[in-house]
Amino acid sequence: MNSLCAALRLARTEQVGPRTWLRLVTQYGTPAAALDALPGLPARGRTQPVIPPLDSITREIDATLAMGGQFLTLLDADYPPLLRHIPDAPPVLSVLGNMACLRKPGIGIVGARNASAHGLRLAESLATELSDSGLTIISGLARGIDAAAHKGALYRQGLTIAAIAGGLDCPYPPQNAALQDQIAQMGAVVTEAPLGTAPQGRHFPRRNRLIAGLALGCVVVEAAPHSGTLITARMATDYGREVFAVPGSPLDPRCRGSNDLLRKGAILTERAADILPHIALFDPEQAVVEQYGTKSTPDLFAPILPSAPRGAEDRNFKNIDKKQSVKRNTPPLPAPPATALDPAQHLLDLLSFTPIAVDDLIRRCQFSASAVL
Length: 373
Prior knowledge:
The chain is α/β, with parallel strands linked by helices. The protein is built from 17 helices and nine strands. A nine-stranded mixed beta sheet has the order 1-2-6-5-4-3-7-8-9, with helices on both faces.
């Protein structure tokens, strides 16, 4: 417990990002020793880092354990091996459910929130087929493609992992709270955010990093240009993982980003058989060696230099989020889905340039046949 408290306090310290956390622990031997040394290090900025008090961390641990959650630190042997390979691996993970899922081979499936009915059906069928093949399905619990991927894995009692942006006690979107509970019972929910953290726009790139880091590869089903889905695909590429993309109509804005991935070399995917041969041959450790020339990522164990800005790696996430907000001109959180009071907009989201039967539309939404008609 003392070691976990120290690891969490260091991870929750402002200006201490994942790389800095690992460098400090590597230099001083343990999280506790790094915490003791932190106040004496030269200040990099106008203020010294503020270490959270011990009692607040103890309350977080007790509350997480009380709801059935568990913690994994980067120093634990059970830490997900694929995630450990990435250069900015989260120092501490909060997990609800079966932690063994995090060590099993998995594939990420991500895509548009306002997905078409055909996109939802394809994501579900891909997830079911891949799950039947023994892969764990990893996604972000968002509405649309993410939720369809989780449901497809659960359809035949397969394993699925939901990487979320907020705390374990803050399901987002709220209408997926029941799905999160089901995933926690039959798979795992994972986050690096503390309890009580309401998801904000700046948290989602970190969530995307979890998906990309945990998976052997990432499948993109419908993604608009400059979408968060493409951030996940880019991170997967940066981590040396395979990227797959489902082709879509060039007339549908939701498919332009995924079609562009195909143009840039992503593997064209229409069914699970297009994915499995590439996953079977993929060695993530060898990919790291080929990319960086070593089994450990560059500068990961470099000593702390007074001139280097502490927490610089966190700025990368902030810059990503800022760029996405500017390009899309959207609020920090995705817009809520249409409700029962607005069936027209919900049905429009389900339509695409590929014809679909009215009966299929009825099965894809919560409205009555008369309302759909």
